[in-house]
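ok so i was messing around last nite and threw this chain in just to see what happens. nothing serious, just curious
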Amino acid sequence: MKRVLAFDFGASSGRAMIATLDGGKIEMKEIHRFANDPVVVRGSMYWDVLRLFFEIKTGITKAVNEGGFDAISIDTWGVDFGLLDKNGRLLANPYHYRDSRTHTVPEKVFEIISRDDLYKKAGLQFIHFNTIYQLMYLKFNEPDVLERADKMLMMPDLFAYMLTGEMKEEATIASTSNLLNPYTKDWDFELIEQLGLPKSIFAPITKPGSVYGYLSDEICEELGCDKVPVIAVASHDTASAVAATPSERDDFVYISCGTWSLFGIESKTPILTAEAAKADFTNEGGFEDTTRFLKNIMGLWLIQESRRQFRREGEEVGFDVLEKEALASEPFKCFINVDDPAFEPSGNLPRRVKEYCQKTGQYVPQTRGEVMRCIYQSLAMKYKYTFNALNSLGDKTYHSINILGGGIKDRLLCQMTSDACNVPVLAGPTEATVMGNIGVAFNALGEIKDFADLRKVVSNSTEIKTYTPNDNDAWEKAYSDYLKATGL
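result:
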């Protein structure tokens, strides 16, 4: 029985899982978990990439002691990258996407290529931290860094390079850069040249399900492991999660719900219409050359960061308590636009919720429960807004929503989503990202035959909970208040 060692990196933590495929079901065991905390140095926010690679090596050591493995696979968040010099050494720690340096860069880029033309080329949502804007920040402000760079590798590709010595870019993670052609699934060198970026730094694209390379002799000697392949799975965490959607239908809506909420559909082709651009939907790559047509929404970050603030103030409160306090508070008294830039940085988020409500002439939440109620119902309303947009952009009407990932543990959010959107919500699997990661790895190893088989295996391996809508009339009545408060 083949064994995969899967590494799944989130924005706040990571873990190593040993997985087998037995009787058409994925069996997983977590063998290592670790924090993934950004580090702020003199006002700049970085990923602690060497510490994270140390954790990968720790996971490998533990896996060896657990009986070994036949392949390694890695998924991470998108957009961020490391730059390597001609000797293959990091020039600096990779920046964290929440670093504020790129806030004004998009407008400068639009002076080179218009917003409309950029969308027609890449089809990505306009978010200041996309790779394109991070690279253009360097071009505008630190050109010497780009001059010294020999290659750019996005995070999962960077870790794979550290393990194998091979420099490749996996297609789904590269698709978050705003520099990939959504039709050819290769770098758009015409766009790259137009922007004045060095074409030589972009490593060859490889498809999900291919092999980066094999563990280096140095790693095998240090850690006492076999020289196994490192597989390029759908290495963007959302691509892995969507690959694991347990649906037999082609026309399903998903929310990959974690720190961010990725809300969209799976399409066989990119959707680059003017209407899609106006609605600010993104086209990112998926397994088997599919397109993830989605909206990037601020997700559980709002709840997580609020809890961190309460704890900083000495209130040792769990998510279950916050959920109960939100439910006990009066509904629809105030709303926020969850994607307002004010809510992106870390820090005192409950205070910013109150300031937003005061600025927009609404009731200002007073208690912890009222703050959380505002956040919860605003998230559900943004889901409703996005669901309505999806139904209006194409020729299909969607009748249910699949919620994937850790967010399904938040039963209040799942129920509010069903209530607001007035459709059933199918919640599961919790471990969608790592299941998709593992499923593509087993496909590469010949253990899972195709995409349909992968989704069948995931369905066999998890339980799905269904939420049905109730009290939708109240949500419909409050929706106009939400639109007014948020300016949407």
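not much to say yet. The chain has 19 helices and 19 strands.
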